[in-house]
């Protein structure tokens, strides 16, 4: 069983329009690496050299991973990961 | 073109006036694919700022889950400018992430007259569009 990842509209260009995709890994970082093999380019929209992009939120189940261990957050089968761009501006 | 009910326009303006001088923000959801805003959802500006707005991350997740459960999408994403015109700022453009949404800007800089304009923001390109205000949507 894989981990279910919810993809926001703006990133579905990478997933052939799929809203939910499966991926594997022990941590969020591994999971994003696995996703990037299947959907090249997707990872770069979520992380940069400094880590998670400031205006992209990633949730493990109901919790923002910034309040967990960020990219090192442990994930396991049956978890659900949601990627949502922040709604923000000036 | 954005076609929107008058009561929803009034609700955005009222929210913007109420939160002035901080920026107000929110969403008007509608059925997926309908391009028709129906459900007004004022959001808290977690930045509580006169020059910036951001939905709280927990609120954002709940909002999207709720829209998903209702087969809705964000048809309108609105926020106010409290000292500048109703035109998207550089940060508005760089963070715009809903290619299908109408980005509505409300300016409250003039206490007497409220300016409300709508834009599409796709791949950092801004296109203003007409706003057609209707009494009811057929």
What is the CA–CA distance across the termini of chain A? Answer: 42 Å
Summarize the amount of helix of chain B as a percent range: 10-25%
Low-confidence stretches of chain A: none
Largest beta-sheet characterization of chain B: 6 strands, mixed
- Coarse structural class of chain A: alpha+beta
- The CATH superfamily of chain B bears the name Cytidine Deaminase, domain 2
Subunit arrangement of the protein: heterodimer
Rg for CA atoms of chain A: 12 Å
Q: Note the total helix count of chain A.
A: 1
**Going by CATH, what is the homologous superfamily of chain A?**
Beta-grasp domain
Count of individual helical segments of chain B: 3
Briefly, what CATH class of chain B? Alpha Beta
CATH architectural group of chain A: Roll
Order of helices and strands of chain B: EHEEEHEHEEEE
Strand order of the largest sheet of chain B: 3-2-5-6-7-8
Beta-strand content bin of chain B = 35-45%
Plain-language structure description:
- The complex is a heterodimer of chains A (90) and B (138).
- Chain A is an alpha+beta fold and 90 residues long.
- Chain A has a single domain, classed as Beta-grasp domain (Ubiquitin-like (UB roll), Roll), CATH 3.10.20.
- Chain A is built from one helix and eight strands; from the N terminus they run ββαββββββ.
- A five-stranded mixed beta sheet of chain A has the order 2-1-7-5-6, covered by helices on one side. A two-stranded antiparallel ribbon of chain A has the order 3-4.
- By secondary structure, chain B is an alpha/beta fold.
- Chain B has a single domain, classed as Cytidine Deaminase, domain 2.
- Chain B contains three helices and nine strands; from the N terminus they run βαβββαβαββββ.
- Chain B has helices at 6-19, 57-69, 90-95, and strands at 2-5, 25-31, 39-43, 53-54, 72-81, 102-107, 115-122, 125-129, 131-134.
- A six-stranded mixed beta sheet of chain B has the order 3-2-5-6-7-8. A two-stranded parallel sheet of chain B has the order 1-9.
- The model of chain B has no long low-confidence stretch (mean pLDDT 97).
- The chains are: A alpha+beta (90), B alpha/beta (138).
- The interface between A and B is medium-sized, with 17 and 28 residues.
